[in-house]
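Take a look at this chain, tokens included, and explain the fold to me:
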Amino acid sequence: MDTKMTDYKNSLYKELSRLTKGLGSEKRLEILNLLTQGPKPVEGISLATGLSVANTSRHLQVLKESNLVVTSRQGNFIRYSLASAKVAQLILFLFDIGEEQLAEVRTIEAEYDREAGVNQISLQEAVELSEQPDVLLLDLRPVEEFEAGHLPRAVSLPMADFHQKKTQLPKDRTIIVYCRGRQCGYANVAAQDLQSLGYPTFSLNRSFADWKWGKREEC
């Protein structure tokens, strides 16, 4: 084989392998999924993932070296965001493949839904039903993520305030709750809580990112 062509091919694969280094950690995958919801400072990522700030910074450095995330300055804060829309699509596509190819993933999701014992709803159904006046689409994410983008006609009630304000929700409306998608889990928790209080409730285990990038429609 021609040496020049071999060097060319090997160089390409070597550079592409930098991406797999960024993806090769469950915590880095969690960080990337979190950033599909919008930019965040290292402290916000640390709080959401349960990692120390130091560990979060190390993971972010790997992701930056892999060209999967970029930084920008807002006042005194450095904010991290996905490097491009295609990175967001890559992460969602990876989760799709996981659900299709890994029986363990499907089992984990099914058991979690079964234990919650709440009605599930697809993304398409939720968006369509939210047009009806007797349906309330509830976004459980932090306010800054809601403001960065949310499902059509959704109303913000961050999970941090949910337990204090849940009884103020109207009982004459069907409530659909969503958070950061299947990898989050808060939608089932909130739906279970509301259901126990007598609210007609559905859990939407998809996210704004799923809707924005048009990747998934199933429950």
